[in-house]
Design brief:
Blueprint: H1 22-35, E1 38-39, H2 43-62, H3 67-79, E2 89-90, E3 95-101, E4 106-107, H4 123-135, H5 140-147, E5 157-160, E6 169-170, H6 176-184, E7 190-196, E8 201-206, H7 212-224, E9 228-238, E10 241-249, H8 258-272, E11 278-279, E12 282-283, H9 284-291, H10 320-327
Parallel strand pairs: 4-6, 5-7
Antiparallel strand pairs: 1-3, 2-8, 3-7, 8-10, 9-10, 11-12
Helix pairs in contact: 1-2, 3-6, 4-6
Length: about 350
């Protein structure tokens, strides 16, 4: 029995021009609005989402934006802050799956609250990439090139982090520039490999060095406010290390140290362009007032600091082919050999 509806089918089956019904398109829109994604394994949802994308690109191709407008869009997208949070981390491996997602939910960059560095993308490359997308918007090969196929490899890879305005999806190992190009064209969806990392969560400190008690007190306060639920054994010691464990957190980036939680709150509001009033019964004004002073303290020692950035640095390419081959980690793998 096949695991996926597209198993053992042709290389281009995911991106062959579909004849989606209006019902399938509306179904895909409903999934996107209610759950934030359209799973690739849902055949009707996939057909509806892909039809939405192709029809949108055909419409844009008929009246493409000027170069100056594309540049403005690239800069606007790049100015949105990164959402690369350090704590808490999921205690279990995230469930990875492929889905159609809104590119406007994707965050690029590797430093919380900082924009996508101007040095890591080139406007001429990006314009050339968007032109190629529009010129080949009815070609299955173009979509396979930019989105790939779960059977062969990956291109756009994100982690999905929930929040009150909707999820933010930081780029993982691949996909900064391709997702940026489709977003600049106003596309309703892109295909990505998504990791949902849910509860329980943990934060690890070095007990005799870090000021972990500040985080413990803050998390207990969050629990009293009904924003999280700590584990029954909320503090677990492992030799010189100590784990603070959180059983549930609907907004996990608030369940950190006060310093990182308030930084994540600022970045989340900047990303969506709205002020967050509350999370459940927890008022953000009270959170800021109560923990503003504690947030000035850095609670973790440098041993836990990131020493190597995972950000992709791009070298100038002579043409689009070179750009795509050097853009990110793995543009496309070879098809599986079938016997």
């Amino acid at each position: 029995m096949s695991r996926h509806w597209y198993s053992n089918q042709s290389e281009f089956v995911l991106f062959e021009r579909s004849n989606a019904t209006q019902t399938q398109v509306e179904y895909a829109r409903e999934l996107l609005e209610n759950s934030g994604e359209v799973p690739l394994d849902d055949y009707n949802g996939h057909i509806g989402a892909f039809t939405m994308l192709v029809d949108h690109l055909k419409s844009v191709a008929a009246d493409p934006p000027e170069r100056i407008e594309l540049k403005r869009r690239f800069r606007t997208i790049a100015r949105r802050p990164s959402f690369d949070i350090r704590d808490p981390i999921s205690s279990r491996s995230g469930r990875r799956h492929w889905a159609w997602i809104d590119p406007r939910t994707i965050a690029r960059g590797r430093i919380l609250g900082k924009p996508f560095p101007r040095s890591q993308y080139s406007e001429p490359w990006m314009i050339q990439l968007t032109q190629q997308i529009l010129e080949e918007c009815e070609s299955p090969e173009m979509y396979l090139e930019h989105f790939n196929d779960p059977r062969y490899g990956y291109v756009i890879v994100v982690t999905s982090i929930p929040g009150p305005f909707g999820p933010i999806r930081p780029i993982g190992t691949n996909g900064n520039h391709r997702s940026m190009a489709f977003e600049a064209l106003g596309c309703p969806v892109v295909l990505a490999e998504v990791s949902n990392e849910g509860p329980p969560y943990r934060i690890t400190y070095k007990e005799n060095v870090d000021a972990w008690q500040i985080t413990r007190d803050y998390l207990k306060w969050l629990e009293d406010q009904g924003a999280i639920r700590l584990s029954s054994r909320s503090v677990v010691r492992r030799g010189q290390f100590l784990d603070i464990r959180i059983a549930e957190a609907t907004t996990p980036w608030l369940a950190s140290s006060p310093r990182e939680a308030l930084a994540a709150l600022d970045a989340y509001e900047q990303f969506w362009g709205h002020k967050l009033e509350s999370v459940g019964q927890l008022q953000m004004s009270e959170l800021r007032r109560r923990w503003k002073s504690a947030a000035r303290t850095k609670v973790r020692s440098s041993i836990f600091a990131k020493t190597v950035s995972a950000a992709t640095l791009i070298r100038p390419a002579d043409n689009l082919t070179n750009f795509l081959s050097s853009e990110e980690v793995k543009p496309r793998s070879l098809p599986i050999r079938r016997t």
